[in-house]
Design a protein that fits this description.
Blueprint: E1 2-9, H1 13-24, E2 29-32, H2 39-42, H3 73-86, E3 91-92, E4 97-103, E5 106-111, E6 115-123, E7 130-131, E8 144-145, E9 158-162, H4 166-177, E10 181-185, H5 200-208, E11 213-215, E12 219-224, E13 227-232, E14 235-240, E15 243-246, E16 250-251, H6 254-259, E17 286-288, H7 303-306, H8 309-323
The structure holds flavin-adenine dinucleotide.
């Protein structure tokens, strides 16, 4: 069994930032990641542009130079690869953490490949692995996707896009522009206010002119290989359909967090209990970093504003070690 001072679960931007701070502090640390480096970013739509300018996505003082002020996904992948090699970070990829238990003062981490023991643990788990399901008949058909990569497969196809937030709007516009026949199914009575201000008029005008059809205040109730059923204010509508792109959001791995003893606040967002000045959870020496601390508010914390968690956590852990 390998023993460490600190293990970080998740090699997203914030897990990497924690690794950098741990390295700077001379700690014996390891980052364990279930997928590839910055796995969530890798699974974002291929043509996505970040809403942040590149310098706001920087970690570890490595400059992020991009072609436009706001970088695109391949530039971000390149950047975080560069960060990893510049700092020679200790990362194990394609190794999912399956279980965390406590053995006296230490954590025991069981992965698909081995068991580790560590004094302190950082969960930088993100939120992109668990999509909200529609929970309707037919959701398990292969034509239903909860992740979107690129528009080409949808050329000439009848596509239903579910949702009204940024992802749904981007997907609807991109697939329509590349030759799909797009229908949006939207639970609310309008496109979400949070949609990027420079995209909002585009989608609203496409809907107004009828290029993209939208059913507001409506939900999908059934999916079959060749159709979808939609509950609308005017009654049940059945549409012929080839693909369903369910852009209904994602949520953090609450069950996994609960299994380690993390408690949640009594609020609407299932916010984990943590100390804002140290980022330590209710479990001693177990820290939370990045987007995962927002609970269901997955847009409250992002790379820009959670990069700072890394320094806070490592400073606190250093103080604890020094006090012993
Ligand atoms: C389309 C889109 C655009 C965005 N644009 C921006 C932007 O412009 N600016 C910005 O600041 N933010 C943006 N965000 C948000 C930002 O990407 C996230 O907030 C950010 O990825 C959070 O970083 P993180 O390290 O906390 O989590 P993540 O990047 O999600 O990393 C978590 C990692 O943990 C791994 N993991 C999870 N469970 C386990 C396990 N059991 N074992 C091992 N590994 C595990 C995952 O595979 C993942 O790699 C955007 C998000 C989306 C969806």
């Amino acid at each position: 069994m390998e023993g460490r001072d600190l293990i970080i679960i998740g090699a997203g931007p914030i897990g990497l930032a924690c690794g950098i701070e741990a390295k700077k502090a001379g700690l014996d640390y390891l980052i364990i990641e279930k997928g590839c480096l910055v796995n969530s970013l890798y699974n974002y739509p291929h043509n996505m542009t970040f809403f942040s300018t590149s310098e706001r996505l920087e970690i570890g003082d490595v400059p992020f130079v991009s072609n436009s002020p706001k970088p695109m996904r391949p530039e971000a992948l390149e950047y975080y690869r560069r960060v990893c090699t510049s700092w020679k970070l200790n990362v194990r990829l394609y190794e999912e953490v399956q279980k965390v238990t406590k053995d006296n003062e230490r954590f025991l981490i069981t992965t698909a490949k081995g068991i580790y023991s560590t004094k302190a643990l950082v969960l930088a788990l993100g939120f992109y692995d668990r999509p909200y399901l529609l929970n309707v008949e037919g959701e398990n058909l292969s034509k239903v996707k909860h992740y979107y990569d690129e528009p080409h497969p949808y050329f000439g196809q009848r596509v239903a896009v579910i949702g009204a937030a940024n992802s749904a709007v981007d997907v609807a516009l991109e697939t329509w522009r590349k030759g799909a026949e797009v229908t949006m199914v939207i639970r609310e009575d309008k496109i979400r206010e949070s949609v990027k201000y420079w995209v909002r008029p585009d989608i609203e005008n496409r809907i107004k002119e009828g290029s993209i059809k939208a059913y507001f205040s409506s939900t999908v109730t059934k999916i079959t290989p060749s159709a979808i059923e939609i509950e609308t204010p005017e009654g049940l509508v059945t549409l012929e359909n080839d693909f369903v792109l369910a852009m209904t959001g994602y949520q953090p791995p609450f069950e996994f967090m609960k299994s380690i003893g993390i408690r949640f606040q009594q609020d609407d967002f299932h916010t984990p209990v943590y100390n804002e000045t140290t980022m330590e959870s209710n479990v001693p020496n177990l820290y939370l970093a990045g987007v995962v601390i927002g609970g269901l508010q997955t847009n409250k914390w992002f790379i820009e504003n959670s990069r700072v968690h890394a320094e806070v956590i490592i400073n606190d852990f250093k103080k604890k070690i020094a006090a012993k």
